[in-house]
Amino acid sequence: MCGIIGVIDKTRSRMDGSKIKAALSLMNERGSGDGAGYAAYGIYPDYADCYALHVFFDNMAEPKTKVEEILHYWGTVVHQEEIPTFEQPGLKRVHTPWRYFFKPFDDMIGGKVGSEKDIIKHIVMEVNSSIDGALVFSSGKNMGVFKASGWPEDVANFYRIEDYEGYIWLAHNRYPTNSPGWWGGAHPFNLLDWSVVHNGEITSYGTNQRYVEGYGYKCTLLTDTEVVAYLFDLLGRQHELHTETVVKALAPPFWDEIDRMPPAKEGLYRTIRMTYGSALMNGPFAIVVASNEGIVGFTDRIKLRPLVVGENGDMLYISSEESAIRVIDPEVKNIRTPRAGEPIIGRFNA
Amino acid sequence: MKTVTIDAKDLHYTPLNQKVRAAVADGAEEIVLNNVLGQRFIGNGVRGNARIIVNGVPGGDVCMFMSGPTCIVNGNAEHAPGNTMDKGMLVIHGSAGDAVAHGMRGGKVFVRNNIGYRGGIHMKQYEVEARPMLVIGGTAHSFLGEYMAGGLVLVLGIGQEKAMTDRGIGSGIHGGEIIIRGEVDDHLLGVGARKFEFTEADLERIKPVIESFCEHFDLDPAPFMDTNYTRIAPASSRPFAGKYVWE
Question: Of the listed A2, A124, A228, A344, which one is catalytic?
Answer without folding.
Answer: A2
